[in-house]
Amino acid sequence: MTDPVITATNLTVRYTIGHGLLTKKAYLNAVDDVSLSIDKGSFFGLVGESGSGKTTLGRALLRAAPITAGEVIYRDDEVRYDLRALSKQQMKDYRKRAQLIFQDPYAALSPRMTVRDIIAEPLEVMGLTRTREETDARVREIAAKCRLNLEHLRRFPHAFSGGQRQRISIARALVSGPRFVVADESVAALDVSIQADVLNLLKAIQRDMGISFLFISHDLSVVAHVCDHVAVMYLGQLVETAPTRALFARPRHPYTSALLSAIPSLDPDDAGNAQKLEGEIPSPADPPPGCKFNSRCPFARERCRLEAPALRELAPDHFGACHFSEEFDFSRGGATGSAKGLQQA
Amino acid sequence: MTTPLISVKDLTIRFRTDEGLITAVEDVSFDILPGQVMGLVGESGSGKSVTAKALMQLNAGNTRYDPASKILLDRPEREPLDVLSLKRDRDLRVVRGGAISMIFQEPMASFAPAITVGEQMVEQLLIHTAMSRVQAKALSIEMLDRVGIPDAGRRFGQYAFEFSGGMRQRAMIAMALSTKPRLLIADEPTTALDVTIQAQVIDLMKDLVSDFGMAILFITHDLGVIAQTADKVAVMYLGRIVEKGTVRQVIKTPLHPYTQGLLNALPKINDLEAELTPVPGDIPSPLDRPPGCVFNTRCPVAIAGVCTTQVPRYSEGEGGRKVACHLVERHQAEAVAT
Ligand SMILES: Nc1ncnc2c1ncn2[C@@H]1O[C@H](COP(=O)(O)OP(=O)(O)OP(=O)(O)O)[C@@H](O)[C@H]1O
Ligand SMILES: Nc1ncnc2c1ncn2[C@@H]1O[C@H](COP(=O)(O)OP(=O)(O)OP(=O)(O)O)[C@@H](O)[C@H]1O
Ligand SMILES: [Mg+2]
Ligand SMILES: [Mg+2]
Fold first, then answer.
1. How far apart are alpha carbons B237 and B77 in whole angstroms?
2. How far is the CA of A163 from the centre of ligand 2 (A)?
3. Where in chain B are the domains?
4. Residue-wise pLDDT tens digits, A65-90
5. How far apart are CA A206 and CA A213, in angstroms?
6. Which of A155, A159, B74, B181 is disulfide-compatible with B101, CB 3.0–4.6 A?
7. How much distance in Å is there from the Cα of B48 to the middle of ligand 2?
8. What are the boundaries of each domain within chain A?
9. pTM, entire model
10. Ligand in closest contact with the CA of B198
11. Do B272 and A225 touch (CB under 8 A)?
12. CATH, domain range A4-227
């Protein structure tokens, strides 16, 4: 972690929930005291169950969610921004440098604009191009990178299927030439072939253009293939971060290992040896005391219910937040324990 | 023999657009028996959603179904109902949200923004069942709870935009299942879900199949999910079914080059070094469907002069599996000859 593009320190994002006159006001920390740094040019994966706060964390790093406490620093060759203290001008500039690819390609695209106009809009809004020719050239270049042809550019988004719309979203996000991109479940809507294609595309963009990615996904097998680092999130906190290979070879947190074993096997005859997580993620408005994972952890002991474990370095660059990381080998029954997937001849 | 719950015959769907008539689905046929789970997989734009929506006549106004197309829904003690013959929304009510429920690929589209998730679930139950408001509320909360939404009582009173993406998806599943449809169409129902909840939703669906004999049409690009849930699977490409059979047949010994390509494109968790290999080339525009086999422009083993001109017939394999591929047909003919 020498040259980070993003450094978050003790970042907390708090929402007020409950509304109306009769419901009591309550709070939840969607992101709770998170520290992480993303290296320049890194493809950084963020995984965790629904509601764990991945999107909120991603948005906070883009200054699209409120930073309630803590600090986020963005840095590239030209600027250094403290995201809590951006002037209007800097905010505008940051929008250009940091971009989001949306989770829901259906909600993201305006139905009344042609694909060309959708992709061109950020250029026009930010005033990045001077002439229509310049805009068109830029749109065509980025569209081609995302495998959209000229005929596609004239059409309206409703005439596209989910996967095609996702490529439009990606083109729109990349057109302003960002340095840091948060990709939120951006391959979830794609079939495997295009998914492989888009992943290879994002990887090529990362390599050729030196863009750093925060790649949010619930699909661990995808993350395993494309990310160099992975952070695992549970109820607003990071429970494990590590280089991808180390994380998959030997998960140091029982939650990571449960996630790994829940990946459905491609072999129809290899059902249910998954070590299934009991129950569901507790409400973030009312997290359990101690380690937030204790209510679902098969290894939990008394100490876990009393004391919150800190994220600590358990192996070089491999951090985990579990009191008993050294005692248990969580990888048993996890990814390395069972042969997932189909052996194809 | 069991009567199929739904029987799709020669379904051809075209769309009128500014650029001309688009063929989105061509000659698609399949049956789903009661209690059966059929998977539908295929590349983006291959026509999966459009096929599924046809079962409830939910496609947009510019849709044209070819006259030969039939979608027959089995009814107790009556002639099967041809869904495509229904014209009025009132007549379609027995189908939409009655016999068939659908979980949409676009989660936001299923929720009205201005009313709470709970109110919407209750209203739907009041339309399609004989329940009282109190019963409907209790069932709705129970269903939200069953799909793994924490604090279901409170969530019942919230709006869809207040839910996280995965929660919205689960709420939609709860809503679709609450009326106990005979056929559930699930269009990418677990794509927005994390693996643990996915595993729970899959179990929930399996329970519903065994408890109520519900049938499911399961659309997904996740072949792992198909392997763990479906009994049979159909693989679609550019509007055609290129291969269908039992899950075991299709996943363990894929015959069609496109099915083989799909399996090769999958990230494999036990082999991180493996490159992700997409099916080479681009899917052609539906305005520009290739003659002959629709897959010939991207097929690594296409036979020149054959695959580019003749539409392949279905070759029949063991256990009723079907493959539309000239190469497979040729191999079969050779095997018979020797
Ligand atoms: N604007 C908001 N107001 C109130 N609560 C919110 C808001 N946005 C998110 N939350 C809550 O914050 C928590 C984290 O949500 P977030 O969308 O970040 O989760 P996620 O990890 O991205 O989940 P998913 O995988 O389902 O997308 C959830 O409990 C969610 O309900
Ligand atoms: N109303 C419409 N007008 C014109 N074309 C349409 C319309 N609806 C769908 N199409 C086209 O029909 C084809 C099939 O679309 P469909 O949504 O069924 O794909 P899909 O297989 O579900 O893809 P995905 O996996 O991306 O969801 C696509 O080429 C799409 O652009
Ligand atoms: Mg999210
Ligand atoms: Mg679809």
1. 37
2. 10
3. 106-180
4. 999 999 999 999 999 999 999 999 99
5. 7
6. B181
7. 8
8. 4-227, 250-335
9. 0.80
10. 1
11. yes
12. 3.40.50.300
